[in-house]
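$ fold --in a.seq
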Amino acid sequence: MKKPILMLLAITCLMACSEESTNSYSPGAEENQVNYNLSRYSNDVSLFAGTWNHDKDFIMNSDNLIEEIEINSVVYNKNIEIIRDANNNIINTKEYSAGNLILENTVSYNSSGQIAQVTQEDFQSSQNFDYIFTYNGNQVIKSDSYSNYTTVYTFNDNNQLISAEEFVGDEAFKLEELEYDAQGNLISTTLSGDPLSIIAQETHFIYDSSINPLVKPFHIHDYYDIFINPPAEQLGVYIATYGSPNNWIEANGDHINYDIEVVFDSSNRIISRFGTISSADVSGLELEESFNYVD
């Protein structure tokens, strides 16, 4: 299976098991006065004083939805084209490297508008397989056509992801539990059972009161990031950035240290978030996000 390299804190508004996302986009009074539409959003991560990098640029269309992703890193450079249907559901993504098509995902939906299957074609390895999604009440079960791995996603009554548990056969080996505040912001995520760590890892987030401009462009693309190409560590970190109604401005964890600064423009729109992230395993990881608005 081909997976993208993990980008710490490049992170979704989680699918509510329907066409709309968990925190659906609904402009309020402040938003009607200020334009929060983005033309481009960048998330750059570097390590070892810039000798290692993984940079992503998300380009938005006129509907303020992601239409292309540009990735540049020390490992590879590629472009991802996102194709949607008339309802703005993602139906196809194509990844190109040096102008050559290297990976294609085709998405099909059931009669309720939920993702039913994703067929992935890897043109470099000539390997094709399917992700299959089964819906049972407040749970979504993801399986695939090539292994005995399954993931069970559980949602609360507000259609927010509250847990994601991974299994090998019938044996559970990794669990993430998530908690939200009354505004819908993800405030904590706890990861346990990870074979890479024998200690549960917990991360907490603190938010401002300003509108998060990433909710609208990512609220359809999130199906992909959570269910198809999830970050290798905590899904909650992704949801905090791309799915919470407000902008996280502080974070702290049991085994990780965040030193982050956030900058706003005169209209109180976030324009950058940057700083360093360190743990016992990694030091000198630098994060820089930039938000470019239509006006």
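$ fold --in b.seq
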Amino acid sequence: MEFVTDDATVQCIRIVPGDQGNPDTRVVVATFDSAVETIAPHVAAKLSEIEIRELELWLEDRAKLQAELNETPAEIAALKALPQMIDQACDSLGNLKELDRDTYQALMNAVSHLSDALAQVQNITENARTELNHLQDSEELKEKLDAFKHSIGD
């Protein structure tokens, strides 16, 4: 079961394994408002007991992440989201056949600037991060980016 936020909704996606080398099938089983913090009866009715427990854990992890992000300055939230954004950019680049010169140059300049800024950091500390085991990386990144966008807009 995957839980994917899309604008103002959360989709509960059941993954049905493919047979004999066929790819897995993803089926949207239920959707609900992303502002909801508990499982609505109409959603629970469509999920198995195990899926309900997965959703409970996902909602708990999302609440923890949102609380953490609400206490995090925008600058720190941006830095914490950056590695995942870079990974996604690398995946995207791997899927492209070509890239326009302006985008290429902008990326090269940004990477160079980031590398220079990182080289200037003098105090690197050990920082324990709360583990969020049930929130998929892409969903965690969405939450971080949403919090970052919200902090910029204030």
